Amino acid sequence: MTDFTDPARAGFHPSDAAEGVTMATGSTARFVAPGAATQGRFGLFEWVAAPRTGGTDAHLHRTFSESFYVTAGALTVYDGARWVTARSGDFLHVPEGVAHGFRNDTDEPASMLVLFAPAPPREQYFRELAEIGASGRTLTDDEWVELWARHDQYRVELG
Q: Which CATH number is 18-154's, of 2.60.120.10, 2.60.40.1220, 2.50.20.10, 1.10.150.120?
């Protein structure tokens, strides 16, 4: 296995070594290149959204940008101004502080690559979401706000 902390070496990360989590909805997140594999420069995840599943309500991040590249199917994404349909090949870049969100409104699965830059430890956020769903735990509104804040995620109310 390659030492990903050595900036003088290329780092090969085989697909079967990538960790992933499954959400209670059946959607999955695969941590293709977490920050540990990129010296913190970016994180790259693959998200496969099960049919008719919510993803995220409108929210923003203060310390990192997020980009979405749809690789299959169609997703409904919030681009900071409106909800639009993004199909395979479409790309959305979201700078720090800009509201965004996504969901799958179709009867088919959809997938996308999600790029975070620089690389926050987003895999921990997704692990926590998967654990909450798997355990059947119910969080209060205050507990959700605290969880989101720990991971630089802030809900945006749309008017």
A: 2.60.120.10
